[in-house]
# Entry
Amino acid sequence: MRAARRGSIAAKLAKPQALAAPYVLWLAVFVAAPILIIAVFAFVRNGGGFTLSHFAEAARSWKVFGRSFWLAFVATAICLLLGYPLAYVLSRESANVQRVMSMLIMLPMWMNFLLRTYAWMSILEENNGLLNRLLGFLRLPQLHIANSPTAVVIGMVYNFLPFMVLPLYSVLVKLDKRLVEAAQDLGATPVQVFRRVTFRLSLPGVISGVTMVFVPAVSTFAISKLLGGGKSDLLGDLIERNFLSNKPFGSAISLLMMVICMVFIGLMNKFGDGGEGTLAI
Amino acid sequence: MTKNRLPGRLYTALIMLFLYAPIFVLIVFSFNATKSRTVWAGFSLKWYTALLRDKQILGAFYTTLAVSLISAAVSTVIGTFAAIGLFDMKRKLRSPVLFVNNIPLVNADIITGVAMCMLFVALGTFLKFKLGFGTLLIAHVTFNIPYIILSVMPKLRQLDGNLLDAGRDLGCTWFGTLWRVIFPEIMPGIINGALIAFTMSIDDFVISYFTAGSDVETLSMSVYSMTRKRISPEVNALSTLLFVTVLILLLAINIRSRGQNKSPETR
# Structure
C-alpha cells in the first residue's frame, strides 16, 4: 500500500529523486572518500603495494585496545543500570512531569562537555577536591580516585548517561500498558512481568542506548586525558597522537576500532530482532 | 495505579544531583573572587567583566555560533531535499545511500574527524587550500545532515497521498505541490531536525578539533587547549550565561506548549 502511495508521489513530482543528487554527491566526497583514504593508508606499504604490517604494529597496542573496551563496557553497563530505572520511572509520570524531566536530562548537553568534565576534576581532586572536603566535613574516609580509571569511568557515565536514558524512555513510554496488565491478570509475578514483558519489549531501546553510549565511550580521548591524568591511554588518545605523524599506524588502529564497533552493533541488532530506526536520538 | 511514587522520585532526584553537580560547581565558581576552582574566596563579578574584554574567548564563541547556525541551515536545506528524493527512490537505490548516510551516526566521532582531516589535507595539497573555517563548516554539515534526514523521513512516511492528489487537481505544478503541500506537512520534522543539528554543532568538540586547522578555534577547542594549563574562570562565566539563556528559552517554550496538549517531538 505504501508502495502505491509512493508511486503516486512519484507521478505528481516529475523526478523528485533528483532532489537527493546533491546529497549523494556530498556523501561520496565527504563520507565515503575519507573512509577509503583511511583504508588505503592502513593497507598500503610505504613504497606502494599491499601489506598487513600496519595491523601487526597496531596489534602491539593490544593493552590499549583491552583497556578501552573494558572501560567502555563498564561505563555502558553502569549507564544501563542507572538509566533503565530512571527511564522507567519517567515513563510512568504525568505528561507534564515527563516533559520537564526529559528537558532536564537534555539540558546539561548544552553546557560544553569539556567544561563539565573539567568540573569533575575539581570535584574529585585529591587534596582540595570538593567531594573529599564534603566527606571530611561528614567525618567519612577520603576517596582517592582522581587520575584513575575510576574517574575516567565516572566521566564517561556522566557524559553519556543521557544517551542511554532518552532512547530507553522513548521506547518505554510507548509500551502498551495493556500487555503488562494482561501478564498480571494471567498471574505473573512483578519480576516475571518485568523480565518477560517490559524488558523484552524495551530491547530496541536498550540496544540503541547501549550503542550510543558504547561507541563514544570506547573512542573518547578528552575524558581520559582530563580525568585519567594522562596515565591510562585509551584508543582515542592513541589515534589522536599518531594519525598525523604516523598515518598508516593511526589508520590501522582507526579501521580496527571501526570494524570492531560495527561488528558489535551488528551483533546487538541481531540479538534484539533488529531495532531498526531506533538508532537516532 | 495509585502506587507510591516516592522511591522513584527520590531516585530521579539522586540522578539529577549527579547530572547537575558539576554544572552547579561551574556556575558557583564563575562568581569566585580568585582563580581557584576548589576554594571559595568570596563573591565577585570580575570574570564576567573580564570575559567582555577577552577577544580570544569571544572570538571562539562567535566562531562556534557561526558554524552552528550556518551548518544547521545548510544541512537542513540539503537534508530536507535529500529526504524527499530518497523517499521517492526505489529501495535498491535507497538502501545503499541510507547505509552511507548512517556511517557518521554510527561511527565514532574521532574516526569521522580523523578521516575528514586526511581528506582535507590531501585535497588541500592538490587545490592549494588550508584547513580553516570552510573545512570546519563542511565537517559540521556532513555530520548534521543525517539527523535532518532521520527526523524528516518519518514525517514523509505519514504524508497523506490524497493531499498531493488534491494539490495536483487544484492546479499545482510539482514545485507548487512541494512548496504548498509537502513542506507545510513535514515542517515539524524539519524544525526538529534543525534544532538537533544546531545542538550537535554547538556541543561538538572532537570533529571540530580535527577539521578546523590551527587558525580557527571553536569554544570547545579553546577550552581544550586551556585544560593543559588552567581553565580561565571567564569560560565558566560564558558557559553560565549560555546555560541560563538556554534554560530560559526552554522554560518559555515549555510554558507556552503546556496548554496545547501536544506530545513533545523529541525524535
Observations:
- The first helix of chain B runs from residue 6 to 29.
- Chain B touches chain A through 98 residues (CB under 8 Å).
- Residues 70 and 216 of chain B are 16 Å apart (CA to CA).
